[in-house]
Design goal:
About 60% of the residues lie in helices and about 5% in strands. With about 325 residues, the protein is mainly alpha-helical. The chain folds into 3 domains: about 160 residues, Serine Threonine Protein Phosphatase 5, Tetratricopeptide repeat; about 35 residues; about 110 residues, no CATH class. Helix 2 packs antiparallel against helix 3. The longest helix is centred in the middle third of the chain and has 23 residues.
Length: about 325
């Protein structure tokens, strides 16, 4: 169950910090989640201290942490420091969508609409593939954010707004969701208008609710062939789950495609190892031969930041480790 009160968020943050102490190799992801819960609880000073702690380490996600710290500091009353961090991130021009989205939304939430629009546009200039037949999941949120800010600024539709409309998964169009005039409907005494606004809000909040309840990817467990051979040699009961390595890879891709087809976003793959799985089973006071542990193990690895996004970007190597491009391997049209 998701925490819903400040006390629940504080308790969850403290649990995550204890888990980070147990798994120092994964403490960055766990502490980021803890900081988010502290922010939701209103304890922005402790959240800021966690971000500072993370920034003191040699992290490959420094710009993401700076973006989160900037958003937190602005809400915490440190606007000048937040602006300095945002300017530094814009100068660094990260090749990841997340820092751009955070700073653009931070500027938007403080009525810096022109600067927010510039952030969204610059990010898309850097990150949007030239062939827009395949728009990465993270980039879709940048398109939607830019669309929203342009509507607030009263700017006309352009090609990227049209692309945002095309990849938008909701039943209600982005034009309708992002219409500034819709706020007036909240003051209406017409039941039909109010009902229509409720439908719009449900559509708009649906994806955000999904992400809040699942702050890490829905992950499917992948066993490299040597690890699977070792696993089945030690625990032959699991052969019912993994009859062959080839079947395991095919089933994994099919599962991800099925999830994607039902509208599930933020999908990922986690790679298992036998020692890690045995340690997890011991922590659950169960036997590694218990197949019910496998999805729980995958979720735990995802929560610890071990998931790799699926599907791979265009031209990237397949997730299976073959070294072949994904589109010529498990991403090919002949896959089930």
């Amino acid at each position: 169950m998701r925490p819903d009160t400040p006390a629940d968020h504080i308790a969850e943050a403290e649990r995550l910090m204890r888990t980070a102490a147990r798994y120092p190799e994964d403490d960055e992801q766990l502490l980021l989640q803890a900081a988010a819960h502290l922010e939701l609880a209103g304890d922005r000073e402790r959240a800021s201290a966690l971000y500072d702690r993370l920034l003191a380490t040699d992290s490959e996600h420094t710009l993401l942490i700076k973006a989160l710290q900037a958003a937190n500091l602005w809400e915490y009353g440190h606007e000048a420091e937040a602006r300095a961090l945002i300017n530094g991130i814009r100068t660094a021009a990260p090749a990841d969508a997340a820092p751009w989205e955070i700073i653009a939304e931070t500027l938007e939430s403080h009525d810096e609409l022109e600067a927010s629009h510039d952030c969204f546009t610059t990010a898309l200039d850097l990150l949007l593939p030239a062939d827009d037949d395949e728009v990465p999941y993270a980039t879709q949120s940048l398109l939607a954010g830019r669309h929203r800010v342009r509507r607030l600024l009263g700017l006309p539709h352009d090609d990227r707004d049209a692309l945002a409309d095309r990849v938008h998964p909701g039943d209600i169009s982005l034009d309708e969701l992002h219409d500034p005039k819709r706020l007036w409907a909240l003051g209406s005494d017409n039941p039909a208008e109010l009902q229509a606004e409720i439908a719009r809000l449900r559509s708009e909040l649906g994806s955000y609710r999904s992400e809040l309840s699942r702050p890490f990817p829905v992950a499917v467990l992948h066993w490299p062939e040597p690890e699977l051979d070792e696993l089945l040699a030690a625990y032959p009961e699991l052969e019912r789950e993994y009859p062959t390595h080839e079947a395991h890879l095919t089933d994994l891709e099919a599962s991800l495609r099925d999830l994607s087809a039902t509208g599930t976003g933020n999908l990922g793959i986690v790679t298992g190892t036998v020692p890690s799985y045995e340690a997890f089973a011991a922590s659950e006071q169960s036997s590694p031969s218990n197949a019910d542990l496998l999805p729980q193990y995958a979720t735990t690895l995802a929560a610890r930041g071990r998931a790799v996004a699926w599907p791979p970007s265009r031209g990237a190597a397949c997730w299976c480790g073959s070294g072949v491009a994904y589109r010529d391997c498990h991403g090919g049209p002949n896959q089930p």
